[in-house]
Amino acid sequence: SLFRYLDMISRKLDHHERTAEEQRLLWMEKEEKRQREQTRRKLNLLRKFEEEWKTKEMLLLKETVEDVNREAGIEEQLHRSKGKSHKQVENLLEKVLNFY
């Protein structure tokens, strides 16, 4: 009877150990899943941030190119108008010199 009692206690302990091990494994699986989800969310946020950054960078580059082109156009117009003025002054001087 004592052996039966010890055997019953042993089986209950085995059962509790198995249950505790199963619960530990379930907890580990849940924790791993939680960490994977957290990593996935972080990666998604990182991708979104990178896309937004690239878009902003491209807009800035586009604006810079437009500014450079606009300034180049202004400089070209100034250069042309200076050339015309210079030509007009030369022609006038030539007329004055020819007159005298």
TrEMBL record:
InterPro entries: FSIP2 (IPR038891)
GO cellular component: mitochondrion
Source organism superkingdom: Eukaryota
PANTHER family: FIBROUS SHEATH-INTERACTING PROTEIN 2 (PTHR21856)
Name of the molecule in the record: Uncharacterized protein
Organism per entry: Myotis lucifugus
